[in-house]
Write a structure and sequence with these properties.
Elements: E1 5-13, E2 21-29, H1 46-51, H2 71-84, H3 101-129, H4 131-139, H5 145-184, E3 187-188, E4 194-195, H6 203-224
Antiparallel strand pairs: 1-2, 3-4
Helix pairs in contact: 3-5, 3-6, 5-6
């Protein structure tokens, strides 16, 4: 579109023996609409189509339904369309479905096992080092559950710091790579249009990693810790 006008190249082929093709360029008012990737490149109003001498044909119909069609309704619609034209078919848009979510959840599960295992090891070593402090707490009359609460707090802090640092370590290179691709060139999506990469946070795996993993680590530490505080008795 230049100065609010678009040049249309209309080709017409005659039906005579020569089959000559006539090209004519027509400039019409036009406007550019940014709608993102689309298989539609140009939208013409019916009045312009008639003025150009073109004959439109029905390529497809778009309809909005009050509810998602059931399987019985889809079969009935396919049967009705098949009677009109065997090539007609019904396509129901059900929204975006992430087919690779299971793979990401498996990675989150593997990372959670490693994080919880490392947390339990670090918590156990910390509990051994803090035995004199626990003995002192027992001597001054601390509640028996203090030992378990301390173990759970250590596990929570270790797991929270580890998962948060791991998430940040994953976000930084991902964001840097996507930003470099967006600033360097456009990517071709194979469908006749060019699209840009967008940085989208996977909130479900992120919450599972940063929030759920520390909570699970705390619960496991609480289950594996003793409630009774250690004590030292002097023998005569």
């Amino acid at each position: 579109v230049h100065n609010g006008r678009l040049a249309l190249d209309v080709s017409t082929t005659s039906n005579d023996a020569n089959g000559t093709t006539t090209d004519r360029i027509t400039k019409v008012p036009a406007v550019v609409v940014e709608v993102g990737p689309s298989f539609v490149q140009t939208v013409l109003p019916p009045a312009l189509v008639s003025r150009l001498g073109l004959t439109p044909r029905v390529y497809g119909l778009l309809a909005a339904t009050a509810h998602r069609p059931t399987e019985h309704e889809r079969q009935a619609a396919d049967g009705a369309l098949g009677k009109l034209d065997p090539d007609l078919k019904l396509d129901v848009e059900t929204g975006f479905h992430n087919s690779k979510l299971w793979m990401m959840l498996m990675l989150v599960g593997a990372a959670a096992v490693i994080a919880i295992g490392a947390t339990m090891i670090a918590t156990a070593l910390s509990n051994v080092d803090s035995r004199p402090d626990l003995t002192t707490l027992g001597a001054v009359g601390a509640a028996p559950r203090t030992r378990r609460l301390l173990s759970m707090s250590r596990a929570g802090v270790i797991a929270a710091i580890g998962t948060l640092l791991g998430a940040l370590a994953g976000f930084v290179p991902s964001f840097a790579w996507i930003h470099s691709q967006r600033s360097s060139s456009l990517l071709y999506n194979g469908g006749g249009a060019t699209v840009r990469l967008h940085f989208i946070v996977p909130w479900l795996p992120f919450v599972l990693t940063v929030v759920v993993v520390p909570i699970v680590a705390m619960l496991i530490a609480g289950l594996l810790s003793r409630s009774r505080l250690p004590s030292e008795r002097a023998a005569d």
